[in-house]
Amino acid sequence: MRELERYYRVLDLEPGATLEEVNQAYKDLAFIWHPDRIPHDNQRLKDKAQKKLQEINEAREKLRSLKTKRQIPHYSPPPPPKNSPPPPPKKPQPRTTYQHQPPPPPKNNPDLSGKDFSYANLSNKDLSGRNMSYANLSGANLSDTFMHKVILRGANLSEANLFRANLLLADLREANLRNTNLIGADLSGADLRGADLTGARVRSGDRLLVKLIGANLSGAIMPDGTVHT
């Protein structure tokens, strides 16, 4: 029981939290403690984040396993009454020839290239690793969305809300980011070559509020209209 309470504490949850609360807590903490968010030259913090992420993963898996077992109770058939006659012998079933059927396509197809998500509410979604090249995300709400290593090459993100979005190592080559809200977004290690950031919100006064550690901005049009060289 103490070990179970420890898993709840790791996820900052009260004992007895629902499966939905467990999954949401995991997403929030994984976003905060992901090692890629730590500067590459700070190995001590990266090791700490890696250890914390392992604890978060273990807690999520243990609690999910426990709650799944409780939701699907094991059924045991009742024993036959004493002195009951033996069951009749089973009749042989005719053999049936089955044709091979191809497996169904995966439900979560990562290829979303060219899809229309204009003005869609994708806040807090996990789109990490998805191929969304040339997708239309104009005006979409992507606040607090986890988009680690997402492919957005040539995508239209004009006037989208990317407040506090995680775009670590994202591919944003030639992407349209005109008038996009990037306040609080993490673009560390992102490839922004040739991207158009004209009018994008990245500052509050003189303070830059976007993380661009290790980002490639070669040829990108900056918010003030200048071309980064």
Any descriptors?
single chain, 229 residues, mainly alpha, Helix Hairpins, Pectate Lyase C-like, 2 domains, 3 helices, 23% helix
Task: Give an account of the 3D structure.
This protein has about 230 residues and is an all-alpha fold. The chain has two domains: about 1-70, DnaJ domain (Helix Hairpins, Orthogonal Bundle); about 110-229, Pectate Lyase C-like (3 Solenoid). Helices cover about 25% and strands about 0% of the residues. The protein contains three helices and two strands. The protein has helices spanning about 1-10, 20-35, 45-70; strands at about 205, 205-210. A two-stranded antiparallel sheet has the order 1-2. Strand 1 and strand 2 (about 205-210) form a beta hairpin. Helix 2 (about 20-35) packs antiparallel against helix 3. The longest helix is centred in the first third of the chain and has 29 residues, at about 45-70. The protein starts with a helix and ends in a 21-residue tail after the last strand. Mean pLDDT is about 85; it is low at about 95-110.
- The CATH superfamily name of the largest domain is E3 ubiquitin-protein ligase SopA
**CATH architecture classification of the largest domain:** 3 Solenoid
What structural class is derived from the secondary structure elements?
mainly alpha
Number of domains: 2
Q: Helix amount, in percent? A: 10-25%
CATH C-level of the largest domain: Mainly Beta
Radius of gyration: 25 Å
Task: Work out the number of β strands.
Answer: 2
